[in-house]
Design a protein that fits this description.
The chain is built from ten helices and five strands, in the order H-E-E-H-E-H-H-H-H-E-H-E-H-H-H. It is of the alpha+beta class. It has one domain.
Length: 257
């Protein structure tokens, strides 16, 4: 989907590399938990046809207004996905503390602690998969996106008040097309990362179960619970796509929050 959308808009607009970078995050209060990407920008002329899947009122306002710039992430989905590893590691504890289920939250805390103590690759993979599926499934976890024209993409220093002054927010109210495209690219990158981690996790499970010794059996148990929770939430996501009433209810809640 992301590939189709990006290729489609590249056929409509001439994009050029941006001198700055795009910054994305879920937790603005944590100045270290963010991702940066190289950016492409192009100008859509006034009256130029746009994606008919955009909300009608927003689409009309864009068509009737002056020309505007469209920003997207520079890079293929595979390349974008590779950057998520460090981000998920940095933010895993923040996502865990936001989990509403006491049982799952305590399980994740225990798994995180044991993964560090024992350097358990299987628990690490289970936790990474859990965070990835949380990003994909939770309708209230929204990407916060900024365009920073003054810093290069590789400058991973904390977001201080100095750098914040030059940042331009990109969201659904001011740059709907850019925000939608960037979120689609990010979602595809997370999906690809989750698929890769899931394969690694299942391989680790197979290796662990084939071992005769019972070392790490409790850690295996925790990883199993986490994996089942990931499966449950993804099944819930697939089922929600079939339920238009639920989708409309979530959109209503999001609009009024």
């Amino acid at each position: 989907m992301a590939y189709h959308d990006v290729q489609s808009i590249k056929g409509e607009i001439q994009f050029e590399p941006s001198a700055g970078r795009i910054e994305v995050m879920h937790f603005e209060l944590d100045s270290l938990s963010f991702l940066t990407f190289s950016a492409l920008f192009g100008q859509r002329q006034a009256g130029q046809e746009i994606d008919n899947q955009l909300p009608t009122s927003s689409a009309d306002s864009i068509l009737e207004g002056s020309s505007h710039y469209v920003h997207i992430l520079d890079g293929e989905i595979e390349e974008l996905s590779g950057k998520l590893d460090v981000y998920i590691q940095k933010t895993s504890s923040l996502f865990i503390e936001g989990e509403q289920s006491d049982f799952i939250r305590q399980t994740l805390r225990q798994a995180l602690e044991l993964a560090k103590q024992h350097e358990d690759d299987m628990l690490d993979a289970a936790l990474e998969l859990w965070v990835a599926t949380a990003i994909l499934v939770d309708p209230f976890l929204k990407w916060t996106v900024y365009m920073n024209p003054t810093l290069p993409p590789l400058a991973n220093r904390p977001l201080t008040s100095t750098t914040n002054d030059s940042r331009i927010p990109i969201h659904s109210m001011n740059q709907l097309e850019s925000y939608s495209l960037i979120c689609t690219q990010l979602r595809s990158a997370v999906e690809k990362r989750a698929a890769r981690v899931c394969r690694v996790l299942l391989s680790k499970f197979e290796q662990r179960l084939l071992q005769k010794q019972r070392v790490g059996s409790f850690r295996t148990f925790l990883a199993t619970i986490i994996l089942l929770n990931c499966v449950e939430r993804m099944e819930w996501l697939f089922r929600s796509w079939e339920c238009e009433h639920y989708i409309q209810r979530v959109r209503f809640i999001q609009h009024h929050c």
